[in-house]
Amino acid sequence: MRDLENCALYEVIMERMNNMNTIYDFKETEMSGQEINLEDYQGKVVIIVNTASKCGLAPQLEALEGLYKKYHAQGLEVLGLPSNQFHQELSEDEETSDYCQRHYGVTFPMTKRVVINGEDEDPLFTYLKDSSGNGKIKWNFTKFLVGRDGKLIHRYAPVTKPEKMEEQIVEALK
C-alpha cells in the first residue's frame, strides 16, 4: 500500500512540476519564518544561489551583496538558499543569518536551509536544474540568473565569480 501511495504522490508532484513554467510558481521561507512568494519578483531579474557559510566560496556573498546594492534600484533581486548538502553550513538558520550579515554584509533575503539534490530537494532547485539541462548541483554557490519573465537565462558554476555575471545582469535589466 505504501508503494502505491508514494507512486500516486510522485505522479501528483510530477504533474505539478510539469505545469510550472517560471520561478513565480514557487514559494520559499525566509530565515525569519516569513514566506517569500516568488510571484512577488515578477518583472525583476533574480540571482538564485545555493550558499554555505563555511564553504571556501563563501566570500562570494560579499560580491553578490555588491551586485544587489548596485542594481537593486534597477530591478535586481538576489535570493540565497543555504544548504548543508555538502556539510559546510552552520548548524542553525539563525547562526547562518548572523554570520552572513556580520562577515559579508548580506542584506538580500536568505531562506531557511534547503536540500538542493535528491529525494527531498527543494522544488525550486528541481525547476532550475531542469531548466538549465545541467542536472545535479555539484557544489555550493551554483548561481542561476533569471530574467524579468521568470525564466532561466543562465546557470553559473560555483567557481564563477559574481563579478563575471555582471554583463549578463546588465543586459537582462534593460
TrEMBL record:
InterPro entries: Glutathione_peroxidase, GPX_AS, Thioredoxin-like_sf. PROSITE patterns: GLUTATHIONE_PEROXID_1, GLUTATHIONE_PEROXID_3. The keyword Oxidoreductase applies. One of its GO terms (molecular function) is peroxidase activity. Keywords: Oxidoreductase, Peroxidase. Belongs to the glutathione peroxidase family. This is Glutathione peroxidase. It comes from Ligilactobacillus acidipiscis DSM 15836.
